[in-house]
Amino acid sequence: MKSAGKSVGPASNVPSGTPSGGDFFAAAQYSDWVRGAMRALAGRPNAIALYDSTISEPSDLLAGLVAKSLVAVDDDGAPQLSSRYVSVFANGNRFLVDALCARYDETPERLQTVTGVTGALQLILRALVKPGERVLIENPGFKLLTNLALEAGAAVDELDRPAPHFGIDPAQVAARLTPDTRLVILTNPHNPTGVFLDHATLKAVAQAAATVGALLVVDEVYGDFARRPSAGLAAKLAPNIVSLASLTKVFGLFALKCGWMVAAPEVLARIRAGQPEGDVGVSKLSHAVAAHVMENADTFDRHWQAVMTATTPVLHRHAAAMRDEGLIEGAVPAAGCLYFPRIVGVADTLALTRHLWNQVDLLVAPGEYFGLAGHVRLGYAGDAETLDRGLSRLHAGLRAWRDR
Q1: Is residue 330 in a domain?
Q2: Domain Aminotransferase class I/classII large, which positions (predicted)?
């Protein structure tokens, strides 16, 4: 039976309806807020955005790889696409699958390529969850996961990840399960906080889920930030774990629309049987490029590692200064590109972030969009100099808010 907790719809404290008059802070969904923010930023060249949750796109690396690898010439000098340009209709691009298996120490029968984590989740939900059956999803969290489950007709229950540590108690998971629970969905590292769950915790959660016949789905798009890829994805830990990942966050290659899911063959067979048409959005061209990327993954790994080596000390320095002044609380995570500090004395972070935008030309993501007001989400995987200036504005803006 279920313990304390609640079933959810839209996040509390977030405005309802569609924003009007260009006020993107009235957006009901984070995605709408981001779209409005991007339009607003285009009109403010001096503004700084610190809400991005991905490595900045390595466009130079991508262009060089495409120019060097994707197009070749035949013996007559005519251009032709590389051998990686193959059908994805049956089991995905075989070169991409092989490269992913080598990176994550997996086997092809346990891996299926998809357009991304969103596409994979839609497949899983449509295949394995009947309308009215239950899905347990973390809070605070990335509300797109909840929205996808609701759109599939599932009933959504919350699994609290309490501040300040945002961990998970497997006993609490067990108490929140019901005979109708079909999926438990977690992010690891956690979006929005960056907290990383260890293998023991994931195994214990999977064991709890197994008692009601549920699967544990782990969104690991940030996983390579926190552990060596060769250590493997969470799906290695238990037969009822499904791992999801993509090139979007760590590599910053969101334009390729390339993701994958890893699970026991019998679990993948259930998903395919429930959705035999598969992920119809997979692009033959994008996944050919992705195959070349993964065959040259070391190059892209060095890029994101260099970015994080430059930006992480900047965040630590500013966060320590703001904590010392009593403006924020919360430790910077050990790895990743997200920070979710509590703003001391502030309950309405929509109002605060609007103030920061209007007064200091800074955009950070209000915690209301992730289910926890009083916090903001910062991304720090861009340019170190811009991050330094942005965090200086945040410090000044928080001080002004407190002293107003």
Answers
A1: yes
A2: 100-394
Angle among Cα 368, 157, 123 to the nearest 5 degrees reads 95
Nearest to 367 by CA among 312, 325, 328: 328
How far the first Cα of the chain sits from its last, in Å, is 48
Q: Report pLDDT digits (tens) over 241-267.
A: 999 999 999 999 999 999 999 999 999
Tokens of 293: 């990327």
382: containing domain: 25-57+301-403
Q: Are 328 and 342 in contact (CB under 8 A)?
A: yes
Q: How many CA atoms lie within 13 A of 265 on its CB side?
A: 5
Q: Does 208 fall in a domain?
A: yes
CB-CB contact of 389 with 334 (8 Å): no
Interatomic CA distance for residues 322 and 352, integer angstroms: 16
CATH number of the domain where residue 387 is located: 3.90.1150.10
Q: Looking at the structure, tell me whether residues 340 and 361 fall in a common domain.
A: yes
Instruction: Tell me the pairing of strands 259-262 and 328-329.
Output: unpaired
Tens-digit pLDDT profile for residues 196-241? 999 999 999 999 999 999 999 999 999 999 988 888 999 999 999 9
Residue of 131, 138, 125, 121 whose CA lies nearest to 176: 138
Of 261, 243, 245, nearest in space to 253 by CA:
245
Q: 225 to each of 54, 155, 218, 250, how far by Cα in Å?
A: 11, 32, 15, 7
For residue 207, give the amino acid letter. Q
> What is d(CA 140, CA 154) in angstroms, rounded to the nearest whole number?
19
- DSSP conformation letters of 283-315: -HHHHHHHHHHHHTHHHHHHHHHHHHHHHHHHH
Q: Is residue 182 part of a domain?
A: yes
Q: Could you tell me the pTM of the whole model?
A: 0.93
- CB 194 within 8 Å of CB 146: no
- Beta carbons of 96 and 287 less than 8 angstroms apart: yes
Contact (CB, 8 A) for 190 and 221: no
DSSP letter for 110, please: G
CATH of the domain at 249: 3.40.640.10
User: What is the tally of helices (H) and strands (E) in the chain?
Assistant: 13, 16
Q: Torsion angle of alpha carbons 143, 148, 153, 159, nearest 10°?
A: -40
